[in-house]
Amino acid sequence: MLGRKSVEHKSLALNTTPENLIMCNLYMSFGDALEYLKRGHFVTREGWNGKRMYLGLQVPDGDSMMTLPYIWMKTAQGELVPWLASQTDILTDDWRLT
Length: 98
Hints:
It is a single chain. The protein is of the alpha+beta class. The protein has one domain (5-97). 24% of the residues lie in helices and 23% in strands. The protein contains 4 helices and 7 strands; from the N terminus they run βααβαββββαβ. Strands 4-5-6 form a 3-stranded antiparallel beta sheet, with no helix packed on it. Strands 1-2 form a two-stranded parallel ribbon. The chain is globular, with a radius of gyration of 14 Å.
């Protein structure tokens, strides 16, 4: 893929600042993307058809009806929906910060 740069070393993505990952157009594994979600960042996949799609992590507070954290997706149509990873999502290395 033209312009795509993968993070070669497993821990490199987590030891790189979010700003550098975005600026250098670096991609990462799902495991690294999940760690960034836990840190409060949003992530997306290059392989998704909708270019405005991304994921976030909701951590319930005292006023929430939910009792456990969950991952949500903003769809290409702007809707927020619960999200479950496919095997392709988990095994690909085209994740990036958004």
